[in-house]
Amino acid sequence: MKKILWCIVAVALLLGCREGKVREISIIPQPQKITETEGTFTFNSKTTITEYSDDSTFLNAVSYLQERFGKAAGFKFGCEQTSADDPTATSGENRIIFRKDNSLKQEEYKLDITPERIVVASSAANGAFYAVQTLLQMLPNEIYSNEKRNCKWSVPCATIEDSPRFSYRGMHLDVCSHFFDTTFIKRYIDLMAMHKFNVFHWHLTEDQGWRIEIKKYPELTEKGSVRKETVIGTLYSGIYDGTPYGGFYTQQEIKEIVEYAAKRCITVLPEIEMPGHARAAIACFPHLSCGLEESYELATRWGVFRQVYCPKDETFAFLEDVLTEVMELFPSQLIHIGGDECPKSSWKKCPHCQMMIRKHGLKDEFELQSYFIQRMEKFINSKGRSIIGWDEILQGGLAPNATVMSWLGEEGGIKAAQQSHYAVMAPHTKYYMDYYQGDPDTEKLCMGHFVPLKEVYDYNPVPEVLKPEERQYIKGVEACVWTEYMENPQRVEYMAYPRALAVAESGWSNPSGKNWENFVERLQDHFGRLDARGVNYSKNLYNVFITITKDDIYSKVATIRTDMPGVDIYYTLDGSEPTNASNLYTKPFVINKSEVVKARAFLNGKPIGVTATKGWN
Ligand code: ACM
Ligand code: ZN
Predict the structure, then answer these.
(1) Kindly report the CA angle at 361 between 356 and 366, in degrees rounded to 5?
(2) Is the CB of 341 under 6 A from ligand 1?
(3) Which fold has domain 171-191+198-501?
(4) The model's pTM
């Protein structure tokens, strides 16, 4: 009987896909302008692609589209290349035409879909690639399948004119706290590409592990990539697993990732931490430290450590060697040099550091940090690249050409912009994906703050205090994925999605169209696409959040929150499961010691999410 039921479900799904009505246009991030028109365009095995260009501008976009259709639909399109000035550039039937339009900006594209043909116009490879990403989101979700599906591969007719709000749209990944293999890195990059991110910030060195092969210093990966054990629970637990943990990327693997990302219009931004978060390197080469400790080892718990690089000639020579190999591997114009969380306690005690302060007429250890960063900046600038660093590179004076990644709050970004320096906004209270997105009482361990999806979505990355002429220095946004409490790829996806989509939307879309209800509507369509890709995203949006606040010794006040538009919250106090006949929540209420609040959101009378429970304690 079960088998028969499954067959009916499978046939219904198949028919639904084949016969289902063409979806409404629902895209994340929201394009700048969509004009819907009549009809649909249907892809089939006879559809052909024509590239009107004299070079390889459209190569990546075309092969991405071909690959997706090859896998999901079981057919690839024939493709021909024709001279860019061919007058028939926009005619012919059952065709997808890629056309160069030099009047469009970098990353901009125009997508014109009629029943006869699809015309993609862009001046550069990235615009065409983004047009393909938009087109894929207009198709049935099955287009994201890696197995052949029988669908009617139709898209609604429309004209879409689109370009990003910011030139920098980043996602960061810490591969030091936990290590992720190249298969997952590629998947991470593919998901970024789907949402038009264009910078993969690869956090490669830390106190707990050095993850990039450096040919001149094999010790960095032989020894520096393996910590002897890892803390269990928070960094304060004092309990360790007793199991060595490690991993690193060979230079060959890194080249593959850089190339893979480039094909998806994503620049890989490498981060080599200095002067702090350097314990893994110092464990291999203790002479690079201030030499105040009995021994140096990789960190086995999370946090900030006093063992940092000492600003001496050997250290600068070492870092220059490392960065020379890094710059050979990564074509990125920006090189991330960290700069965050460098305690000054060792420098205060170190005779060499104190001598450096006197010799260079520096005021204090903060100016010594600035000296350190400026010296490294000179080296990086001499190779034609520029530095980006976390907020703390502002300490003691900003290096002349530096970009600031503002994580402590907005102040770093504001200060940078006011000094005519570029800034990327990644304030931890908004854009740190390692923070709780659901109730800490029921979620697995995360970092401390509560940053639900709506909080991420509502954040405006251009601080109001900036004058109009200063606002141009806000270069973009970044979602940060620190992995102390993310031990595997599934956990990374759960923490990053869907919150990264809110960052993607702030990075790409026009802020005048910002609308939470509309975002949630599109998000629910988008969940179908993420399902098709097997992404382990969080569904916390559907859950309610109960807070119990102290009143007096005999009473407490219960408040129930939901960010999900259009739902009713029902609750019980007697321990029973809430139904749509239970108490309807309208405002905070008083509970006594014996009562337990159980609450759930209902959409159109149907329960969604899971039941939240909170009692007196
Ligand atoms: C940081 O979170 N330490 C940049
Ligand atoms: Zn020192």
Answers:
(1) 70
(2) yes
(3) TIM Barrel (3.20.20)
(4) 0.96
